[in-house]
Amino acid sequence: MPLELTNSYLKDSIAVFRYYKQLGDRAMAQAPDAAFTATLDPESNSIAMLVKHLSGNMRSRWTDLLSSDGEKPNRNRDSEFEAPPKSRAEVVALWESGWKCLFDSLTALTDENLAQTIYIRSEAHSVMQAINRGLTHCIYHVGQIVLLAKHFAGEKWNTLTIPRGRSADFNARVAKGEVSQR
């Protein structure tokens, strides 16, 4: 994961969010269209449902972060797992709108905002805690999206990280300065 060395929690958090968005982008790009609405079993979520949920969560949490509760009254979380978008274009549009809301909010923050108290479901959080909560939530669901995309891409899948059996090659490239260790 190529990250810039920084002492800024905010800058690092934004970079980690961008990295996981990119993993999701790259995974979904490899998924066949039918995979967006496919599930592994009747109780599982599809890529489309996961994206709908993530987008709803990001819009709720990151809209007016400093001035309103992160669980907006107009959010219906249960509906995020019903009637998923049917097309790749709809899924991608939801994906992008959620991430835009998140990045617009985070990039407007300053280090001074990190200790400020905000609320999510009427529970007090520092902005830093809210960022951690949002980051772990996104990572959890992006991992699910990657798993589903890989499953449905099958043999056509191109790894998103170091391929199996290629760690030594990667380490040699790091030693030569060809790639970053992160």
Report what the structure shows.
27% of the residues are buried. This protein has one domain (9-175): dinb family like domain (Four Helix Bundle (Hemerythrin (Met), subunit A), Up-down Bundle). Strands 1-2 form a two-stranded antiparallel sheet. It is flat and about 45 Å long. The chain is mainly alpha-helical and 182 residues long. It is built from 5 helices and 2 strands, in the order H-H-H-E-E-H-H. 52% of the residues lie in helices and 4% in strands. The model has no long low-confidence stretch (mean pLDDT 92).
The CATH class label is: Mainly Alpha
- Provide the gyration radius in Å: 18 Å
How many DSSP helices? 5
Strands ordered across the widest β-sheet: 1-2
Secondary-structure element string = HHHEEHH
CATH superfamily: dinb family like domain
Major sheet attributes: 2 strands, antiparallel
CATH architecture identity: Up-down Bundle
Classify the fold: give the CATH topology.
Four Helix Bundle (Hemerythrin (Met), subunit A)
* Count of β-strands: 2
Helix content: 40-55%
Question: Which structural class is indicated by helix and strand composition?
Answer: mainly alpha
Number of domains: 1
Q: Beta-sheet strand percentage?
A: under 5%
Shape: flat
The overall pLDDT, averaged over residues, is 92
Low-confidence stretches: none
User: How many angstroms separate the termini?
Assistant: 4 Å
